[in-house]
Amino acid sequence: MLFIYAAIAGLLIGLRVWGQPLIRVELPEPAASIAIVALGFAIAIALAVLVDALIRRLYWRAYFAAVRGYQAPALLRDLTTAVLLVLAVSIWLYVDLDFSPVGLLAASGATVVVIGLALQTIILDVFSGLSISLDRTYKIGDWLTVFAEPMRESSLYGKVEGMSWRCTTLRLEDGRTVLLPNRVVTSNPVINHSSPKTPKRLSVEICLDVRIPAQRAIRLLLGETYRVLHARGFCVDPAPSVLLARVNRDESDYVVRFYADPDLISPSQACSRVLAALHDAAARARLPRPVQHIELSEPSTARVEEDLTAREALEAIPLFAETLNTEQLRALALRCSPVTYHQGAVLMTQGAEESSMAVILEGAARVTVSTNGPDSAAEVAVLCNGDIVGEMSLMTGAPRSATVTALTPLRALVITKDAIEHLFETAPELLERFSKILAARDAQLHARRDEAEQWAIGERDLLSVMRTFFARTFAGNDRRLN
């Protein structure tokens, strides 16, 4: 393209220098003079275009992009082009017509003032756009919140889809397009959610009954937040947090803070997903919602129970709910106890020979697996409210296959081998039921090729291992039967 521009400019200059006598011979006056002047104008424009192309190639694309690390704003490049064209026309007027543009501007000062007053908003938009481009306030693709008071909404949140001399184009979350004059953007506060390229903190607020102990609510909400943060667009680093914001007569207001990438998920969607998960978690834990009561009697000062009862927690686990009846659940619950762990505490260690499992009541825990020593530990899952861990070790005596560490302050219901043995002493047939459920879970986790055959093999193997592990219990049953 540069070669074409240079060729056109050279051709025009050649016609002007060497073809001028021929033009005066072939064309009568004043047509010959007009043609020569027009040729001079064409030369001025061609040279301006050639110089602009050279600047764009050598400066804007090469030097500027290499030094600054980003492409020069289109507004700045267009302004350079306009200046070159005005300069070229001014030189042409002075050389060919002996006319000074400076004198014209001085003579028409009043006209310039009038035009400037009439176009002051347009001029302000142009210079505001130039300021935005030079300051690199935002670029196409960034997500912005613009606090523009004169508009119907108190703030506008959208993605920058275009930047021109006069306005910035925002695409809102609902699909609408808003054209914001550049002067509005520069004269109002603007939040650029995409700069710097780091996760941004968001927050949601949830109200719970004032009788719920604060530490219990924080553990439950924080644990559920960790579950959501493993979805696309969310970030677990920095870690989420839960704060008690306000305490009123009937309710306690908690603020849940977390981090998300606005380029992957919009803030409104992220907040909605977290709030929905917290709402469901509160419902599963049977936390009462604040209700304003007007009573003539003295209000009750009774506290909500510290946590779900052991029986309610067991009923929520398919492994027990599908195997045990009401009486058996009650008997097992009497032999289980809730345990509180501080943040960072190790619930289970990979390779340890322990015979217990845990039901997470409140909080979150990280599951890691080491292949070549403790330094190679890799996170494989995050467990939170309602999840179970360690069931294979409890039922088969197998060493722990992973390490479980508390991500937050955590409460868990611990079920030991002694508690399970008491059930098998009274109902030996439960062993076969447990083996079927555990075999099904094991087949799903390992995605076996021949599911039906492997299921049967796994069931027989697990039944044999479990019978050996609980041999003492069944030996006692056999003696009683004899």
What would you note in describing this structure?
The chain has helices spanning 2-18, 20-26, 31-68, 74-96, 101-107, 109-118, 120-135, 182-187, 214-228, 267-284, 310-315, 318-321, 326-334, 391-396, 417-426, 430-446, 451-469, 471-481, and strands spanning 143-146, 156-163, 167-172, 177-181, 190-192, 200-209, 234-235, 241-247, 251-260, 337-341, 346-348, 356-362, 365-369, 378-383, 388-389, 403-406, 410-416. The protein has 482 residues and is an alpha+beta fold. The protein has 4 domains: 2-107; 135-192, Roll (SH3 type barrels), CATH 2.30.30; 200-284, Alpha-Beta Plaits, CATH 3.30.70; 310-477, Sandwich (Jelly Rolls), CATH 2.60.120. The strands form 4 sheets. Strands 4-3-2-1-5 form a 5-stranded antiparallel beta sheet. Strands 6, 7, 8 and 9 form a 4-stranded antiparallel beta sheet that branches. It starts with a helix and ends with a helix.
Our measurement of the CA-to-CA distance between the termini, rounded to an integer number of angstroms, reads 102 Å
Number of helices: 18
Question: What would the principal axes of the Cα set say about the shape?
Answer: elongated
Compute the number of strand runs.
17
The name of the CATH superfamily of the largest domain reads: Jelly Rolls
The low-confidence runs, each spanning 5 or more residues with pLDDT under 50, are: 299-307, 448-452
For the record, the CATH architecture of the largest domain stands as Sandwich
**What integer is the average pLDDT?**
79
The biggest sheet amounts to: 5 strands, antiparallel
Radius of gyration, in angstroms, nearest whole number: 38 Å
